[in-house]
Design brief:
The chain has 5 helices and 10 strands; from the N terminus they run ααβββββααβββββα. It is α+β, with helices and mostly antiparallel strands. Strands 1, 2, 3, 4, 5, 8, 9 and 10 form an 8-stranded antiparallel beta sheet that branches. The protein has a two-stranded antiparallel ribbon with strand order 6-7. About 3% of the residues have low confidence. Its EC number is 3.2.2.-.
């Protein structure tokens, strides 16, 4: 259940910071997805940082393209990409406009809207697996490219948030309850190869059952990827 200050929407200034500051600070925050069938809320437990043109693991490493354009936009927007011809993944754009950086949302705990999330992920064996991995998270929340570049912050007027209450858009991020720093773990990003492999830019809440298993980069068949995401 989400109540009190937990329901306060994060302002755009939260995202207008370096990606390595934003990423661990997203842990424990509440991602809200509003669909025509209802609302789902998810407590973030695992994320990865990608730092644009200075990061060999980032989609924006070689510059702007039609696919990654949202990463260069204003902070506090979504970047959704389609991968391996099968799955969507959801990122939150951060840092100043024009400098591509974002945080991949890797895993979380469904805290409300369980029945709707289960309907989106009928093959999940238990609730802790509904959003255990970025493809599963996007599927559980019914996220696709239609949400690419949508605003996740409150409406603004003259640069100021109109009100610090729960957002009513398709995606929003609430303050939630961040974990104590001693509970945050960090390590290499999952599945990233090449020069970007050793960057310790994956952050997760230690011992949380919804966190996805770490996998080093290795070529994978489409059949194996499909099995891992279901």
């Amino acid at each position: 259940m989400i109540s009190g200050r937990d329901r306060t929407a994060l302002p755009r200034t939260f995202f207008d910071r370096p990606v390595l500051d934003v990423a661990p600070d997203l842990l424990g925050r509440i991602l809200v997805r509003t669909t025509p069938r209802g609302r789902i809320a998810l407590r973030l437990t695992e994320v990865e940082a990608y730092d644009g043109e200075r990061d060999p693991g980032s989609h924006a490493y070689r510059g702007r393209t039609a696919r990654n354009a949202a990463m260069f936009g204003p902070p506090g927007h979504a970047y959704v990409y389609f991968t391996y011809g099968m799955w969507h993944c959801l990122n939150l754009v951060c840092g100043p406009e024009g400098k591509a950086s974002g945080v991949l949302l890797r895993a979380g705990e469904i805290v409300s809207g369980l029945e709707l999330a289960r309907a989106h992920r009928p093959n999940a064996r238990r609730d802790t697996e509904l959003a255990k991995g970025p493809a599963r998270l996007a599927t559980a929340l019914d996220v696709d490219r239609a949400l690419n570049a949508v605003n996740v912050c409150l409406a603004e007027s003259d640069g100021e948030a109109l009100e610090a209450t729960e957002p009513d858009g398709e995606l929003g991020v609430l303050a939630g309850r961040p974990p104590a720093r001693r509970h945050i773990r960090t390590g290499p990003r999952t599945g990233v190869g090449g020069e970007g492999a050793p960057y310790p830019w994956r952050f997760w809440i230690g011992d949380d059952p919804t966190v996805s298993p770490y996998r080093a980069h290795q070529p994978r068949s489409r059949a194996r990827l499909k099995t891992e995401a279901t």
